[in-house]
Amino acid sequence: MLRGLCAALRGHLIVLCAVVGCGAWIAPGHAQPFPSRPITLIVPFAAGGPTDTLARILSERIAAELRTTVVVENVAGASGSIAGARVARATPDGTTITIGHWGTHVLNGAIFKLPYDVVADFEPVAMIAMGTQLIVGRKSLEANSLKEMIAWLKGNPGKATAGTAGAGTGAHVAGVFFKDKTGTDFQFVPYRGAGPAMIDLVAGQIDIMFDQASNSLPHVKSGAIKAFAVTSPTRLASAPDVPTVDEAGLPGLYISYWHGIWAPKNTPKDIVTKLNAAIVAVLAEPAVKHRFAELGQEIPLPAQQTPAALAAFQKAETEKWWPIVKAADIKPE
């Protein structure tokens, strides 16, 4: 009888172990902790540009926070819309995210016929930086102030060249508004990003740019290019010698170039929360704050770094800029 009881117990234990074993084998597929794989951070422009610079500053620190690898991948072209389509179609598991800005996640929706929606097809993760533009020119340009630059443009109608990161980008839109406000005329030269455009400006191959401060400041400080004005009502702490557009004689030409991080639509809320927490922690680091400040970038307050805050800000910017862009009839070149 004892022998039979032991045999029966052994049978139950075998069945129990089999069930537990199967459960242990199945569970990881359903509840693997995030991140279980490397994260790809898509940059919608060429390497070396302002958006790429911010992405690379953040990526290493985000990787440390999440204890994973973050790979920065540059997917340039069509003013950032090729990258936008790539991320919009990506599996919404948090392993593909993108950095974007006023151009990629507001202006593109008003200018291009896109295979995705700049608002509806993404999950906002965090606002990371608020920046501005500089109006800059090649070192040899025959002007040393914004008024002189405008006079030079009027004296050479249709001949001057302005580099942009592509049709419909912030640099292009800013240039269109500058033309309208000053009565000047010049040609736009599109590049695959602000980085390549800046290379040609430094080399004297193009004349001017309406460029993100983070891209221009190092070259302004080195004396490689001239800065005529900053497109904000206050001077940059990192470039106090550069006048505002109001001071330089072109009042009201304000353009804010903000950056954020997005994931594909339907990325689980807990993953978005974890990504946001890592980014917020990185933005609080003194070294990151210092580096951003050097590039003319202001880190938003913690209350503005939430996914909800980025969603609300993007919505407000869309409502502000879409009517302006459409009224100006800005088209892809």
TrEMBL record:
Per UniProt, the keywords (alphabetical) are: Receptor
Cross-referenced PROSITE patterns: PROKAR_LIPOPROTEIN
A Pfam family that this protein carries is TctC
This protein's source sits in the domain of life called Bacteria
Indicate whether Phosphoprotein appears among the record's keywords. no
Query: What Gene3D superfamilies would the database entry show?
Result: Bordetella uptake gene, domain 1, Periplasmic binding protein-like II
Q: Which family does it belong to?
A: Belongs to the UPF0065 (bug) family.
- Its recorded name reads Tripartite-type tricarboxylate transporter, receptor component TctC
The scientific name of the source species is: Bradyrhizobium shewense
